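Schema walkthrough. Field components (list of strings):
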Amino acid sequence: MYIIMVYDINEKRVNRVLKIGRKYLDWMQNSVLEGEITVAKYEKLKMELLDIIKKDEDSIIFYILRTTRYSKREIIGQQKGGSKLII
Amino acid sequence: MYIIMVYDINEKRVNRVLKIGRKYLDWMQNSVLEGEITVAKYEKLKMELLDIIKKDEDSIIFYILRTTRYSKREIIGQQKGGSKLII
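Field assembly_structure (string):
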C-alpha cells in the first residue's frame, strides 16, 4: 500500500518525528512524507511515532491508498523532495 | 473527485494561500486541506494560488483521488479540523 503522512508537531518534537518518518518514507516537502510501505512497517511506524508525540498537542494524518491506480499528484511551485515519485 | 492539498509557503504569503484554500476545501490541520471538488473548481483553485505563490520559494502538492473507494485516513494524536470527513 501507499501512504501520505502529514504532521503538525510541536517544535520540541518535530525533528524526532521527521527522523522516524524518513526511515520508512520519502520526504516531499515541509511536514509531508510519502511512500510505498507494508502493513507491518506501517504499524511499526505508528508505534514509534506514538512513543514520541503528545496526543493533546500533536497531530499526524495518514492517507492510506490501497492502490495508486486512481490517484495522482500535481505540484505547483517548487518541487522540494520526492525523487522517487511513484504516483 | 477528492483532493488533498498540502502547502509549504513563505510566511508572507501563507495566510492568503490558506484563505483561498478554504474557499474550496476543508481545513484539516496546519498546511493541510482536503475535500470533494469538481474539475472546474480545482482548476480555478490552482489559478488563484498561482497568482499568489512565488514559484521558486513556495510549494503546493495536490493529491488527486479519482475515487475515495481505495483510500482511508488515520489520525494519531489530536484531530484538529475535518468536521466533514468523507474518506
